[in-house]
Amino acid sequence: MTYHPKSDFMTVMMERGFLADCTDYQALDEAMTSGVVPAYIGFDATAKSLHVGSLIQIMMLRWLQKTGHKPITLMGGGTTKVGDPSFRADERPLLDDAAIQSNIDGIQKVFEAYIDYSDAPSGAVMVNNAEWLDQLNYISFLRDIGRHFSVNRMLAFESVKSRLDREQSLSFLEFNYMILQAYDFMELNRRYGCLLQMGGSDQWGNIVNGIDLTRRVIDNEVYGLTSPLLTTSDGKKMGKSADGAVWLNADMRSPYEFWQFWRNTTDADVGRFLKLYTELPVEECDRLGALEGSEINDAKIRLANEVTTLLHGADAAATAEATSREVFEKGGIGDDLPTLELSAEELAEGVSIVQLIVKSGLAKSGKEAKRLISENGARLDDAPLTDAGLMIDAAALAAPIKLSAGKKRHALIKRAG
How far apart are CA 36 and CA 158, in angstroms? Predict the structure, then answer.
């Protein structure tokens, strides 16, 4: 790409690796230099927390605000009832209104760590698309909005085509999703003067639909910008780890475990992740990413500290680093490790070591825990754990014990009370 942006926002997007595609680079860049641009990203409320896979979008909204523009965080209270079929193999489970609202409440806490919701010109607003989608009259909607959509074109979008090519069912409910998302963009433009929709590159078709609809129905010019769909250098989807999704809410993944996820970044990803997930200058990101040998570990600690500070605060990052040093460098236990407390009743009967490995989150099943032990991947207080039949009782827990799966995942087991 040879385009050289004038606006701070577009410069950041291009220099730091946020930009996959844009519907009109020059026109959007010019809009960004001539006033405050309201821009939105939509988030469906399918869980009580977003995970690391959404962090690139959150950082885009943060940079948007830092460069003087207005973020709109659109909560999908309405669209969550439908489910985005984009590149999914199956239909999402349907949630009721109470579950959706509970999820929105959980997600909101994360945004407040990254974005300022104030009355300033660039102060963010949080909007729920149920405000307008729940009120739609079906016949009116078909007549006024549906007539602008070509089914032929909708079937040609990659997100739909890939599902049909695999002969996997796509319900009429899900097929409507792209129309509803397009309608959201038009409605946000009408209500808030929103000029830009951002999202992952899998949203390109949905975004283009919204731009077309807004132009056709209210004759306004709006823009779309997408970020690359991130995978780690070893091809894994960003946001997943060995023990499941890396949630952003502290009650679903502790700050220590979150810190550890970033500390375990593959060498090849360090520079790229520093640019995307921290606010360190680009030159510093490049310098740290180019380190080799043992020095790259210092860069990973810097990455973990910076990302954790943004989400959980500087104290949480410092505590996580101290715990990590205690556990890894000094062979200690560390006060901030994920902890499983066992009641006196449980200890009276004794709990098998296999159960403890599962309960502490180090394995997903008893079968996986036994395999971990048989393959010499489990450790008890840093010593190899070889007996899958070992029982832990009150006497064994006179002092807390540390369980480990491999070199990087640990949990503390102790008596309750």
Answer: 33
What is the pLDDT confidence band of residue 378, given thresholds at 50, 70 and 90? Answer: confident
Which letter, b or e, does each residue of 184-223 get, where b requires 16 or more Cβ atoms within 10 Å of its Cβ?
A: bbbbbbeebebbbbbbbeebbbbbbbbbbbbeebeeeebb
pLDDT of amino acid 416: 73
**Cα separation of the two ends of the chain:** 61
CATH number for the domain whose boundaries are 8-227: 3.40.50.620
Q: Give strand ranges (E) for 55-140.
A: 70-75, 125-128
Tens digit of pLDDT for each residue in 300-330? Answer: 999 999 999 999 999 999 999 998 887 765 5
Provide the pLDDT for residue 306: 98
Radius of gyration from C-alpha coordinates of the chain:
24
Return the CATH architecture of domain 339-415: Roll (3.10)
Burial-class residue 234 by CB neighbours within 10 Å (0-12, 13-18, 19+): exposed
What is the dihedral sign for C-alpha 70, 71, 75, 78? positive
Kindly report, residue by residue over 39-96, the tens digit of the pLDDT.
999 998 888 999 999 999 999 999 999 999 999 999 989 888 775 555 444 455 678 8
- Give the separation between CA 135 and CA 304, rounded to whole angstroms: 44
Q: Which two tokens stand for residue 286?
A: 């490049």
CA distances from 61 to 58, 100, 264, 383 (A): 5, 23, 26, 46
Residues 342, 360: Cα–Cα separation, whole Å:
11
By mean pLDDT, which of 235-244, 259-268, 277-286, 365-374 is the weakest?
235-244
> Helix, strand, coil: what percent of the chain each, to 5?
50, 15, 35
Residue 93: C-alpha distances to residues 46, 71, 81, 255 (Å): 9, 29, 9, 29
Say which CATH superfamily domain 254-328 falls into: Tyrosyl-Transfer RNA Synthetase (1.10.240.10)
Q: Is 247 helix (H, G, I), strand (E, B) or coil?
A: strand
Residue whose tokens read 């700050």: 255
Which part of the chain is CATH 3.40.50.620?
8-227
Give the C-alpha separation, 252 to 51, whole Å: 10
Q: Please tell me the distance from the alpha carbon of residue 354 to that of residue 373, in angstroms, as a whole number.
A: 9
C-alpha distances (whole Å) from 209 to each of 51, 198, 275, 398 are 27, 13, 30, 63
Q: Are 301 and 263 in contact (CB under 8 A)?
A: yes
